[in-house]
Amino acid sequence: MSTFSNVTFEDMGKLMIRIAVGGLILFHGFAKMVHGVAWIKGPLGAFGLPGFLAYGTYIAEVVAPILILLGVRARLAALVIAFDMVMAVLLVLRQNIFVVKQAGGGWGIELEAFFFLTSLALFFIGAGKYSVSKTSMWD
C-alpha cells in the first residue's frame, strides 16, 4: 500500500470517488426535491411500469448519495445509483446511446456512463477507511 505520513493513498482515492459520485448525484436529487418527480411517471408508463416508481428516484439520488458520502453501506448505495443510471438511460436517454455531441465531441450519455461506472467501481472497492461504517462487507 502506498502511504505518506500515515495517509493511505488508496483510502484517499476511495474518499475522492465517494465525493465525486455522492456529491455530484446529490445535486440531481436536490433538483428532484425542488421540482418533483412527476415528469418521470410518463417515461415509466411508456415502459409499462407504475408511476409510483418515480419516487424511487429520491432513494437513488438523495438517500444513496448521502450514504456514500458518509461511507455507510456505500457498496449497496453505489449499486442503487448504478441501477438509477441504467433506468435514466433506458427511460429518457436511450436515443443518445449512439450519439456523439457536435459541441465538444462528448458521448450522448457520458454523464450517466460516468456515474454508472464510478458507482460500479465504488461497489467493487468499498468505502475505505475514511468512512463512518468500517465493519460490514457492504461498508
Keywords:
single chain, 139 residues, mainly alpha, two-stranded antiparallel sheet, 5 helices
Walkthrough of the structure:
The longest helix is centred in the first third of the chain and has 27 residues, at 9-35. The protein has a two-stranded antiparallel ribbon with strand order 1-2. The protein has one domain. It is mainly α and 139 residues long. It has helices at 9-35, 41-46, 56-70, 74-93, 110-125; strands at 3-4, 7-8. It contains five helices and two strands, in the order ββααααα. Strand 1 and strand 2 (7-8) form a beta hairpin. Helices cover 60% and strands 3% of the residues.
Overall pLDDT, averaged?
92
Helix content: 55-70%
Number of helices: 5
Class per helix and strand makeup: mainly alpha
Task: Describe the secondary-structure layout.
Elements: E1 3-4, E2 7-8, H1 9-35, H2 41-46, H3 56-70, H4 74-93, H5 110-125
Antiparallel strand pairs: 1-2
Helix pairs in contact: 1-3, 1-5, 3-4, 4-5
